[in-house]
């Protein structure tokens, strides 16, 4: 259906092939870097962290990020709570901050299992959580998009924003893993 | 925006199965949770899917449910939760 629609739009002169190619290239070029920088800034700035948790979109705009149409909810991991994101209905994802979602995120297996058996699925990603940690699964069913704010790894005192951002992986912002610890190879 | 429910209020997801495009997952229908936040008002996606404008915008809530309440065989702990965005017209007071 995508092919038919695309060809029709081009045939009707609403879009050119070159425009489509450029937009695909633009989308594919996005990386989780923007998300990682938001997390690193939040680790360094407690006020920003508070604002992100209250209204993710507004806080990102205050950071100078151009995120039109993104309605962002930021959920923070603590020693008591671990958050993980899924879209059971389709594959909603904060593309403006993280780029294209990984194939597994869009798979039926992830989408159907994460909401009902999160601890098992997290284990398959190599993440085991203690019994006293509350697991919160966020099903992004409607207009909001989600970013997990992972916990800041120990041993990073005095680190610059850039160094901290390098520890923030895409998977930690989805919630299937933790941010990298210092000392682990990049 | 005139939001019917408040943060912290107990709400139940209406158990209905209308045809067409819906953003309320089957697994949560009939279940009771607590309003975690009011997200704002957005055009109704069920109408947008039918090429209508979806207005007036409908209040959207994030509702928190206990996993143990939702899944009879849930294997995790008592406190584990699932949080879902649900449109106002799918909710009733619990």
Short descriptors:
A: two-stranded parallel ribbon; 11 helices; 4 strands; globular; B: 94 residues; mainly beta
Chain-wise SSE layout:
The complex is a heterodimer of chains A (186) and B (94).
Chain A: H1 2-11, H2 17-29, H3 33-44, H4 46-54, H5 56-62, E1 72-76, E2 81-86, H6 95-98, H7 103-106, H8 108-113, H9 118-124, E3 134-139, E4 145-149, H10 161-165, H11 170-174
Parallel strand pairs in A: 1-4, 2-3
Chain B: E1 10-13, E2 32-42, H1 45-48, E3 58-66, H2 67-70, E4 81-87, E5 91-93
Antiparallel strand pairs in B: 1-2, 1-5, 2-3, 3-4
Q: Spans of chain A with pLDDT under 50 lasting ≥5 residues?
A: none
Distance between the termini of chain B: 22 Å
The average pLDDT score of chain A comes to: 94
The radius of gyration over CA of chain B amounts to 14 Å
**Main β-sheet, spatial strand arrangement of chain B:** 4-3-2-1-5
Low-confidence stretches of chain B: none
Major beta-sheet overview of chain B: 5 strands, antiparallel
Description:
The complex is a heterodimer of chains A (186) and B (94). Chain A is α/β, with parallel strands linked by helices and 186 residues long. The termini of chain A are far apart. Chain A has helices spanning 2-11, 17-29, 33-44, 46-54, 56-62, 95-98, 103-106, 108-113, 118-124, 161-165, 170-174; strands at residues 72-76, 81-86, 134-139, 145-149. With 94 residues, chain B is mainly beta. Helix content of chain B is 9%, strand content 36%. A five-stranded antiparallel beta sheet of chain B has the order 4-3-2-1-5. The radius of gyration of chain B is 14 Å and the shape is globular. The mean pLDDT of chain B is 95. At the A-B interface, α9 and β3 of A face β2, β3 and β4 of B. β3 (134-139) of chain A pairs parallel with β4 of chain B.
